[in-house]
Amino acid sequence: MEDKEKRKKDTDSSKSDRVTLKKEIGLLSACAIIIGNIIGSGIFISPKGVLEHAGSVGLSLIVWVCGGGICALGSLCYAELGVTIPKSGGDYSYVTEIFGGLVGFLLLWSAVLIMYPTTLAVIALTFSNYVLQPAFTNCLPPYIATRLLATICILFLTWVNCSSVRWATRIQDVFTVGKLLALALIIVVGLVQICRGHYDALHPSVAFEFSQDPSVGQIALAFLQASFAYSGWNFLNYVTEEVVEPRKNLPRAIYISIPLVTLVYTMTNIAYFSSMSPEELLASNAVAVTFGEKLLGMFSWVMPISVALSTFGGINGYLFTSSRLCFSGAREGHLPYLLAMIHLKNCTPIPALLVCCIATIVILCIGETHNLINYVSFINYLSYGVTIAGLLYLRKKRPNLARPIKVNMLVPISYMIFWVVLLGFSLYSEPVVCGLGMVIMLTGVPVYFVGVRWKDKPKWVYRVVEKVTYMGQKLCYVVFPQEDPSETEPLTASKAID
Hints:
With about 500 residues, the chain is mainly alpha-helical. It has 21 helices and 2 strands. It has helices at about 1-15, 25-40, 40-55, 55-85, 90-100, 100-130, 145-165, 165-195, 205, 215-230, 245-275, 280-285, 285-295, 300-330, 350-365, 375-395, 410-430, 430-440, 445-455, 460-475, 485-490, and strands spanning about 340-345, 480. The longest helix is centred in the first third of the chain and has 32 residues, at about 100-130. The protein is globular and about 70 Å long.
């Protein structure tokens, strides 16, 4: 008996001493990651774009509610995939497991090359604009100042994430609460306005007065704008291996977070329209600040600070999760192996975090990024659809695979119908933007065959890669993690419960 207890203690000790990603994300932190990644800059940027394309207040509110419903359908599918294929990496890991290396690599290529760096850059610029706005009341903040502050913010949060997973998750917890309080302030003030009778723009006869003839293409673009605000709902799936009891906490976090965010977003937009006419909202470059100036008087400074805190937490969440995508890609051999290494003591993926940081700073230096929101949203939806199509394919090819969560087939089918319609009309309305996204994604095909599939490269190539990897290891003090296969192995048919 004593020998058994001793062996158990030794086993537990060896697990805690292993150099590996630590399971430090409980249910609260899991909810904070989802909510914190969704609520970033989108709710302060996208209302203008949604209203512009929807053409009326009433239709824009319907778009916000339906956008949350679509995210709920998608998140249910991701919950099934997350517990069936319990690997970090989200869409990329699932698609690679189901469809093979090329399709997975193309998702990884577009995400690492443009999608996540651009999103991080947009959020960082929103942060810097809102921080600097009070100092430049009569004009826009200087171009250089906004870029410099955004870069400093990215560098600081990269350092935090490199130093400790616990610090990063604590920041996420605190700032998620802060951004919910900021949105709660907007909602409460808006409800007070409605109780005082200030809801002209929300009256049905006025709310559905269209500034332009509605078209399916424009409504599709309104959904793409809303999807930018909702993007991040799948990010907990990127860190599955760091979640405590993922088969329980992953779906629970999704079920709690998505309805909460949908409610908050819809009520926030109702609050905006309680104090601003559609024309005022479309003319505003900072919707929340305009709202605060109209209703909060001498306390209007609260709004830019609240938005800055919200976006600060959003940057932290995106850095935390997107770096795990690089880590997962390198572990599969689709990116340099250096990116699959973690710090010897802190157990954080420092090389992957540095790549995300550098890519974001490059995008910041290139120039204007806000025009890329439609493009980023298109790539996002493309990856979501391919992943959920993988769920349907897996149901057909491996029906006996154990699935602790098994959603009704109507859920992925409904999502796929919406996905096909949305992308089809988006391609029709914005062929250049969507076509450019497809072209950049397809540039990954030759990179995949040269960099991944071609095994007989000249020896000097391997020597250069080995030397760079060795230098990176010494510089970052990183090693390959010691994996425990039992934590990530796919469920087998013998354990099936479906």
